[in-house]
Amino acid sequence: MKKNVLVMIVSFIWTTITVFGQVDQSAKNILDQVSKKYDAYKTIQSEFSFSSTQNTGEHYSDKGTLYLNKPKSQYRIHLSSHDLLSDGISNWSVLHEEKEVQISPADQASTSIGPNNIFTFYKTGYNYVLGKNEPVNGDSLKVIELTPKDQRTNYTKIKLRINENNHIHDLLIFDKSGAQFKYVIKTLYVNNKIPSTKFVFDKSKYPSYEIVDLR
Hints:
This protein is mainly beta and 215 residues long. Helices cover 13% and strands 42% of the residues. Strands 1, 2, 3, 4, 5, 6, 7, 8, 9, 10, 11, 12, 13 and 14 form a 14-stranded mixed β-sheet that branches.
């Protein structure tokens, strides 16, 4: 199950999208404000939770930390079962349960969604409409529903909720299979110095892991 979740995360993050169609201007105005905030951040550190519900009713949840160094296209995502990291040239997927490390080239294509624009992926490739605000823990969250313009994507809709600070609170992904995947942003620290070693794969820390180089 955990390996399937990893496949889903990578598939979602690296889905290629196309750009065409119309948008709800009210929703666009809100997303423009959100984008303006995130575009100003050079580094981001965020704690998040992840959960999935399959169409069979099977449930899985995890939590982790995301580190971004946007100017150098570097990232690290730490979860209990695996780590994903990139130095901007290569990507490493470290699977702890399988004791395997998969290496692949970093995708720098501007039309791809990756960790470096996970907070602003909605800018292109989606139609979106503004929904009714929803209360969460005493806060009123703005709701925007996005549908991909490229019908080849493996999901049908994304529900994005935004807090009063114009930061993303959570996103809910509806898969074509009937499964649902939810990410909740727990904390957000921006423009703090992140050690460069955070984005470097240290092979000596995984002496018994099989290295699969796909570059």
